[in-house]
Amino acid sequence: MIIYIGSKNPTKIKAVENIFSEFEVKAVEAASNVSPQPFTDQETLIGAVNRAKECAAKAEGVIGIGLEGGVMKLGEKMLLCNWGALVDETGEVYVASGARIPLPREITEQLEAGKELGEVMDLFTKKTNVRKHEGAIGIFTKGYVGREAMFTHVMELLRGQYEFNKKV
């Protein structure tokens, strides 16, 4: 079976490969059709589902995966959030979310000023493409949980639901 992942981000691709190692995984660009910086759980989830549906439409009998990172408010705090969606070969949609941690106020202020988290993290860490490596989660957990691990957990949740439904 072929699985299409709607991203060229290496951390997302690796997360899918970690959990679906026996399948052929193809990375393609897929539109989230949400804002570049999702600001709610709902918007982040919609982005993941949109990517997964676009991927599933690539061919008959494939699985489409969408993984989306965003932020969401909880009281006065802004937290990282992430969602994944799997659209199976019959069109059934499975969704899962993962780790959440609060962001420092200096990061939140820049996001509220209209910057994207990836851009903010590159400036904050003085690195390039943090989103393609450890991610904000990796920075703010001192490497205990990286972006690949975070999305791998989401993929475990998705595969488990898929297998439960298929009685695999």
Automatic annotation (TrEMBL):
The keyword DNA damage does not apply. GO terms for molecular function: ITPase activity; metal ion binding; nucleotide binding. Gene3D superfamilies: 3.90.950.10. It catalyses: XTP + H2O = XDP + phosphate + H(+); ITP + H2O = IDP + phosphate + H(+). This is inosine/xanthosine triphosphatase. Its EC number is 3.6.1.73. Keywords: Hydrolase, Magnesium, Manganese, Metal-binding, Nucleotide metabolism, Nucleotide-binding. Transmembrane segments: none annotated. InterPro entries: ITPase-like_fam (IPR029001), NTPase/PRRC1 (IPR026533), YjjX_NTPase (IPR050299). One of its GO terms (biological process) is nucleotide metabolic process. NCBIfam families: PRK03114.1 (NF002850). The lineage of its organism: Bacteria, Bacillati, Bacillota, Bacilli, Bacillales. Its cofactor is Mn(2+); Mg(2+). It comes from the Bacteria. Residues 6-154 form the Non-canonical purine NTP phosphatase/PRRC1 domain.
